[in-house]
């Protein structure tokens, strides 16, 4: 009985994750064709072109920066390499829209850089040209600075696990370092690089705060404007369906690349990993500078700029109003993390106990939300639940003469469901990674000793998975804290969060005031990044110890 109950809950969670995606598609297809014709002849071409350009720029930038940094720290020894291979992950702590606020204040016409330039040269506003940061290339730069660590982490692992045999063979056959890299190492690591790039691209199409602040018209901004500015739910749903199709295509590509990664990994040799080659002189300085630059641009400089802005804003996080924003953010993120990880445990446990096609479908459907932007999930939840609220209200008016109002729409519970749908894949991946270390024989032994499903889960799996579940909780917590599109669309009335407050202040061009909530978001975002940095540092020490020459026996 308990086993059936757990499995039924797992299917219920998976159905909840699929429901908003299906609802967005149904609402779009049920919309008036005249609305679609209007979109095609007016804004849709602009959204398509801008979204594609943004995706291409971010994909190229993140792949180049992440792959280059991973190759340098894996293959060469130069000053600071042990520190740089860890801190290259730090830009993940900041949301892209926080970087957008910082660089807008720094690089805009009244900002520090242009003001200093005019003061030094004596130029007037029309005497020089300066790139406009609030543009599509500027938005792409902010997104590259934040999302290149996805490529860096996967590429670094791929390079570190490659056998040195093929690379050294290419060198002995006359290939230089660049030739061996492009002809041997890069093709072997290509699936990992492609997977990291696709993750960066999926986050790019889900972004709203950066493109909205830089006035770049993409599908995400179009969905929000159609829903709120024009009050056109049909247009919002149809735009959401277009973005959903693009996101699902990227999700399919990511799964294909994941399979290719496994096939490439089987071909690796076992004759030793890559040994770091020492660099000296200008080459060592150049390598250090190239690895330091992404950290400087993506973390250090924005943190310094935001700190200066916050210090001069006259606002304090200890103010009761800001404490309320913090409490709202922590409440939503905490509930979302708990619900999402609990759902992942149910789904992962069911897949463990009943392997097969149904379990694979269960995992695929539950994890699909990570490839779907928050705006699409918000539309997919609000459309059916708003209709349900209207039906209940009409029935109550007719039967009892009272209005029930909105029972589901605009509630914390519905927003937590949106977070769960968006980040379920993150929790499932962490749960599966931890469960892979538990041998199926342990399950069999526990069952033969009389443990039922609840006993097996509570007495065997959960104690072993404590670290993995804590990691999942922390990552989902911080991702929920930074999530903006779904929060903007679905938040309860007068229930603003740190992300919403930062966006609203930045939208009013009050960048100094927006720095305060932005810094708090970045500070909390450092928690999982610090844990990740510690894991990378421990891995590096282990690898160095394994690669160190051992003294021969006397």
Secondary-structure topology with pairs:
Blueprint: H1 2-30, H2 33-41, H3 44-75, E1 76-77, H4 81-87, H5 96-107, H6 112-121, H7 136-161, H8 164-172, H9 177-206, H10 209-213, H11 219-229, H12 233-266, E2 277-278, H13 281-311, H14 320-353, H15 357-367, H16 374-400, H17 412-435, H18 440-448, H19 453-464, H20 466-482, H21 485-490, H22 498-507, H23 511-547
Parallel strand pairs: 1-2
Helix pairs in contact: 1-12, 1-14, 1-15, 1-16, 1-17, 3-4, 3-7, 3-9, 3-13, 4-13, 4-23, 5-7, 5-13, 5-23, 7-9, 8-9, 9-12, 11-12, 12-16, 13-23, 14-15, 14-17, 14-20, 16-17, 17-20, 20-23, 22-23
Structure description:
It is built from 23 helices and two strands. Strands 1-2 form a two-stranded parallel sheet. Helix 9 runs antiparallel to helix 12. It is globular, with a radius of gyration of 25 Å. With 554 residues, it is mainly alpha-helical. It has helices spanning 2-30, 33-41, 44-75, 81-87, 96-107, 112-121, 136-161, 164-172, 177-206, 209-213, 219-229, 233-266, 281-311, 320-353, 357-367, 374-400, 412-435, 440-448, 453-464, 466-482, 485-490, 498-507, 511-547; strands at residues 76-77, 277-278. It folds into two domains: 1-19 and 313-507, MetI-like (MetI-like fold, Orthogonal Bundle); 31-269 and 279-311, MetI-like fold.
